[in-house]
Amino acid sequence: MFRFLGEVKSELDKVTWPDINNVIRLTSIVIIISLLVGVYLGAADFLFTNLLGIIVR
């Protein structure tokens, strides 16, 4: 078990971690795109629900 954990630590030391500016920029992009997709899908759902309601009446 300790050998495995030592190997995990060794591998994690080899990882090139992103700097804080990169993390903030990419996280912001993901949040903005997620919000845009959510608004788009919400508007489409609202539109189709109302259209179906008009058709069914």
Protein described:
With 57 residues, the chain is an all-alpha fold. It has one domain. Helices cover 88% and strands 0% of the residues. The protein has 2 helices and no strands. It is elongated. The model has no long low-confidence stretch (mean pLDDT 96).
Largest sheet: none
Question: What string, H for helix and E for strand, traces the elements in order?
Answer: HH
* Average pLDDT for all residues: 96
Number of strands: 0
- End-to-end Cα distance, whole Å, is 67 Å
Structural class category: mainly alpha
Shape: elongated
**Could you estimate the helical fraction of the residues in percent?**
over 70%
What does the secondary structure layout of this molecule look like, with pairings?
Blueprint: H1 2-14, H2 20-56
Considering the chains and any ligands shown, give keywords for the structure.
57 residues; mainly alpha; 2 helices; 88% helix
